[in-house]
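[audit] Reproducing an earlier prediction to check determinism. Same input, same settings, fresh worker. If the C-alpha cells differ from the archived copy the diff job will pick it up downstream; this log only records the rerun itself.
[audit] input (289 residues):
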Amino acid sequence: MWQTQTPDHPAFCDELLTYARTHKIEMIIPGGDEDALALMATRERFEQEGILVAVQGKEFIPVFQSKTAQYEYLRGKGFSVPVHERVRTEEELVEALTRLGYPEYPIIMKPNFGRGGRGITLISEKIVRNEDNLPLKNQQSAKKSIDGKTEYILMRYMEGIVYDVDALRYKDGNVFLGVRKRLCTNVTKLFSGNMFDPDEAIGAFARKIYDAMPTEYLVDYDVMVDKKGSMELLEVNPRPSGSTISYLPFGINLYYVLAKSFLDNEHIQIEKNDFIGHSAHAFYTMIRD
C-alpha cells in the first residue's frame, strides 16, 4: 500500500505522477474533493504522459471551490438555483437574514468554501426540531461566529429527502444518471445505504443539471426533495460519490464501467431494471461494520 502527501501539499501531484509513471497506471479516479481540485489544476501534466485523470478541466476549479460560484455558473446557464446570500461581516449577516425572511424562516449558515456537512449552523430565535441535529444559534449568537474573514452562504432551512445522483459520461458521449435515495435522509447524517429510486421526475431534474453543467467522467449531485415535492440542487461534487458501493450487490462497478469506456472503448450499458426499487442498506452496513 502506498500513501502520497495530502492534496494541499506542494509535492502531492509530483509524487502521484511519479508513482503512476513508475507503475504504469493508466487512469486515476479521485475519491475526495481536495484530491479532485488538486488534480484539476495539474491534469494536463498527467495527460502529456498518457495518464487519464477523471476530473474536469482547470477552468472549472472556481466553480467547485465555492458554492456561490457554482450557483452563479448554473444560473448563467439558465438553471434555477436556491435563493441564497453570501456574507462575511456581522452587518452583512443581519441584512441577509432579513432578505431571507428571518425570523419567520430558520436559516442555514455554512462556510462558502466548506465540504459536505462540515461547519453548518442553524439560525433561529426558537427551538427547531431538525433531523440533522445541527448546532442551533439565534441571531445574536450567530453574529459572534463571524470573524470578518470566513465567507458564509445563507439559505432557508429545508427538511426533506436527499438524493445522490451519479452522472457518468462515457467516452462516446452517452450519459448515465443513477438516482439513489439516502436511507438516512437529510444532509449531515452518516450514510447507511441507498434505495434506487424509480422517480422519473428526479431523473429529469438530474438531466437538467447535466445539461447546464455537462461534466466529464463521473461526478456526484446532491439533490434535496422537500416535503412538498419541490426539488433543489444542493451541490455538484467534483468527484464520484463514495456511496457508489451501493451498486456492487447488483454486479455494477461504476469505476470499472468508467475505466472500460475510456481505456478500452468498451461502453458497458447499465440496465436500470437490474436495481431500480431495490435497497443496498444491508450490504453497505455489512461492509461498513
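[audit] rerun output stored. Observation attached for the diff report: Residues 282-289 have pLDDT under 50 and may be disordered.
[audit] end
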